[in-house]
Amino acid sequence: MLQIPHDGAIKGTFDTLQVIDDVYIPNGKWNTADYPEPITKDYPKYGPGGATQAITHKEIKLDSLEDLRNNKRGKKMTDINTEYYTQEEISWCKEILLKIVGKDNIIDINLAINQVLGLVYAKGGGGKQEIYSYVETMYEYKDPRIFGKKISN
After folding, report:
1. Percent of the chain, pLDDT > 90?
2. Is residue 149 predicted with pLDDT exceeding 60?
3. What 8-state DSSP symbol labels residue 103?
4. Which residue, of 83, 109, 138, 148, has the greatest Cβ tally within 10 A?
């Protein structure tokens, strides 16, 4: 189990056997030191450390992905968060995503809506123009949270 020493915001579950032949423990100092760092400790300015870590370069297929911030039991990331976003914002976001990106290039429309509106809200909220701007930027950079490997660089 990979874990962090504090409450997490997002929980993903998957079968580790799918990456077992590609998992390794990174070296310290962002993989530049000559010693392994299985438990984080090298950068105390970023926190107390203590999190376990391992690296894989394989794609991981998740069994589930949950947002733990708003619901202690977890809320699926593919459920649109109607507690925070208005129907108007959700409609705008869906319309803009489909216009700029296209249905076939989005892994999951609800996940994409949550990601875009989450970023808009994290920056203080906004209207249709802000949503449009975020979608354009995420599309330009092929943001894997929305597009995964469906769009090539």
Report:
1. 11
2. no
3. G
4. 138
Domains in the chain: boundaries: 1-71, 87-147
Residue type, 118: G
The model carries a pTM of 0.48
Residues 6+ apart with CB under 8 A from 94: 109, 113
3-state secondary structure 53-101: CCECCCCCCCCEEEECCCCCCCEECCCCCCCCCCHHHHHHHHHHHHHHC
Structure tokens, 4:
């962090």
SS3 assignment, position 144:
helix
Please, is 28 exposed, middle or buried when counting C-beta atoms within 10 Å of its C-beta (0-12, 13-18, 19+)? middle
**pLDDT on residue 80:** 72
Sign of the C-alpha dihedral computed for residues 107, 109, 111 and 113 taken in this order: positive
Give the mean model confidence (pLDDT) for residues 120-124: 73
Question: What distance lies between CA 60 and its chain's CA centroid?
Answer: 13
- In the block, tokens 């802000």 appear at 130
In the chain, the largest separation of any two C-alpha atoms, in whole Å, equals 53
Q: How is residue 8 written in tokens? A: 């997490």
Q: Are the C-beta atoms of 50 and 40 separated by less than 8 Å?
A: yes
